[in-house]
């Protein structure tokens, strides 16, 4: 079943509407959607390496724009929508510590957490809830999300076929590692912060 799903995603990644669809996923993931855009970014670049940097650009821009929505949720609607997102992921305790850390380390939190499996939506909502400087939030988000997505795109652009071969050969292992990293990011945010 995993092989069929992988083949379907690779085929979808070559579809003429794949880039806008990935943009929507990147936008939504930055504020409340649970699936990261990497799920589409990787197969899209593997399917069409000539568009690697266009795909990374769309992913970055949409992620940062979605981050502004997450920031607005935290800033204006934390007691309602923001609290719902945090509660949905069971991260109430971690968010309180996270918000407190913004006073001293705000820009570093955005830069570091934006590169890790810790869900970016929590960074954006916490930034708004802490009333972190919007200009700094935007440039730090552009930097951290850009580095993340352009690094993935560049590696796939340069080493696409060997990486694709590795993914196809070890698909189950790669899927489990990705899921463990994603769940580990949530757990790290909840229990370590």
Give the helices and strands, then pairings.
Layout: H1 2-13, H2 18-29, H3 38-47, H4 52-88, H5 92-113, H6 120-129, H7 134-169, H8 171-192
Tags for this entry?
193 residues; mainly alpha; 83% helix
Task: Give your account of this protein's structure.
There is one protein chain. The protein has one domain. The chain contains eight helices and no strands. It has helices spanning 2-13, 18-29, 38-47, 52-88, 92-113, 120-129, 134-169, 171-192. Helix 3 (38-47) packs antiparallel against helix 4, helix 4 (52-88) packs across helix 7 (134-169) and helix 5 packs across helix 6. The longest helix has 37 residues, at 52-88. The radius of gyration is 17 Å and the shape is elongated.
Structure described in brief:
By secondary structure, the chain is mainly alpha-helical. It contains 8 helices and no strands. It is elongated and about 45 Å long.
Which percent band covers the strand fraction? under 5%
What general outline do the C-alpha atoms trace? elongated
Average pLDDT across residues?
A: 79
Number of helices: 8
Reading the helices and strands in chain order gives HHHHHHHH
